[in-house]
């Protein structure tokens, strides 16, 4: 029904407006007491789907990637759609409006999305307050820096977010790979990235119960840079990697709006993100967990990433194009694979 009826209607309107309309609709339906309907339609509850990864037990391996619930406003409701975990953010210390609109574009012939949102969010403190109402959803906290913070002071922004979210999330994701904040990707260079992660790990180690810290990387890294990532993970002792964020590549696209600036997600990223997962897994001898994300539009796409070495997977653009039924299809396929 989603693909045949709901999606054609939604796709007639501006994608950012549709996002907020969809969130409002889902929230309204839950306030009417229809959470049970979402659970009955989309959840697959089976012990065989459970995964223990970096010390956490996930009810199933299919999560929602960061960027959908940036402000932690709908995580409980989205949890009813069958996700095993929800990643909120990217959050920054101070609220920021993000980049000027229009900043979100569907590439329907390519089944992709280009976004240049620019970490629009209401600030980490507001999100932390909302997370106090969590009803048992496993939450990842994706953190970044404010646009106005120079890279030389970026570590302080990540520390602020880390402290504000620590009591409210189950794991952290350090986002240095978004193409939509000027110069952010320079933090992926080996020296500044090592310093950043070591600082966060020191703060983490001082806690009574440290939380897993993961690094989210771009799909545009070279093999040499990916080898550096492996070295950085081993040196800093972080829990793992999320592969991958959006790409700046436009290779092979057919859509008229393919030249829009921003990060590309969806089907055009399917193969490259899987390649990155396989490279990291093989060259690290599987020494750390990987969450695979990028172009998962079918159950087979998810299986390919898991077979390449991912321990868990996440959806974003595939969720937009295929609807919540995709979560159920993946989990059902995993039970028979």
Automatic annotation (TrEMBL):
Residues 49-334 form the Dihydroorotate dehydrogenase catalytic domain. The active site is at 178 (nucleophile). Keywords: Cell membrane, Flavoprotein, FMN, Membrane, Oxidoreductase, Pyrimidine biosynthesis. Substrate binds at residues 70, 115-119, 175, 180, 245-246. It catalyses: (S)-dihydroorotate + a quinone = orotate + a quinol. One of its GO terms (biological process) is 'de novo' pyrimidine nucleobase biosynthetic process. Its cofactor is FMN. CDD domains: DHOD_2_like (cd04738). Belongs to the dihydroorotate dehydrogenase family. Type 2 subfamily. Monomer. This is Dihydroorotate dehydrogenase (quinone). It comes from Aureitalea marina. The lineage of its organism: Bacteria, Pseudomonadati, Bacteroidota, Flavobacteriia, Flavobacteriales.
């Amino acid at each position: 029904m989603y693909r045949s009826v709901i999606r054609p209607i939604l796709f007639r309107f501006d994608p950012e407006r549709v996002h907020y309309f969809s969130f409002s609709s889902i929230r309204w339906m839950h306030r009417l007491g229809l959470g049970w309907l979402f659970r009955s339609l989309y959840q697959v509850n089976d012990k065989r789907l459970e995964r223990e990864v970096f010390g956490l037990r996930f009810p199933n391996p299919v999560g929602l990637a960061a960027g959908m619930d940036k402000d932690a406003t709908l995580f409980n409701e989205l949890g009813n759609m069958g996700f095993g975990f929800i990643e909120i953010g990217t959050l920054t210390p101070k609220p920021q409006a993000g980049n000027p609109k229009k900043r979100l574009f569907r590439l329907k012939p390519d089944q992709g999305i280009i976004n240049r949102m620019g970490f629009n969010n209401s600030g980490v403190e507001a999100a932390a307050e909302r997370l106090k109402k969590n009803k048992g959803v496993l939450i990842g906290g994706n953190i970044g820096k404010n646009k106005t913070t120079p890279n030389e002071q970026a570590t302080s922004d990540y520390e602020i977010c880390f402290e504000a979210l620590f009591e409210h999330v189950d794991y952290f994701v350090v986002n240095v790979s978004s193409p939509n904040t000027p110069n952010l990707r320079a933090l992926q260079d080996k020296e500044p990235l090592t310093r950043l992660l070591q600082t966060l790990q020191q703060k983490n180690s001082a806690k009574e119960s440290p939380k897993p810290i993961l690094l989210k990387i771009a799909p545009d890294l070279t093999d040499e840079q990916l080898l550096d990532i492996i070295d950085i993970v081993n040196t800093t002792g972080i829990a793992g990697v999320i592969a991958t964020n959006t790409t700046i590549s436009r290779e092979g696209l057919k859509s008229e709006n393919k030249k829009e600036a921003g990060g590309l997600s969806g089907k055009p990223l399917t193969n490259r993100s899987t390649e990155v997962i396989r490279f990291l897994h093989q060259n690290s001898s599987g020494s750390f967990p990987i969450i695979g994300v990028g172009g998962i539009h079918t159950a087979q796409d998810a299986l390919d990433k898991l077979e390449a070495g991912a321990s868990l997977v996440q959806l974003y653009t595939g969720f937009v194009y295929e609807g919540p039924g995709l979560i159920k299809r993946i989990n059902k396929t995993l039970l028979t694979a």
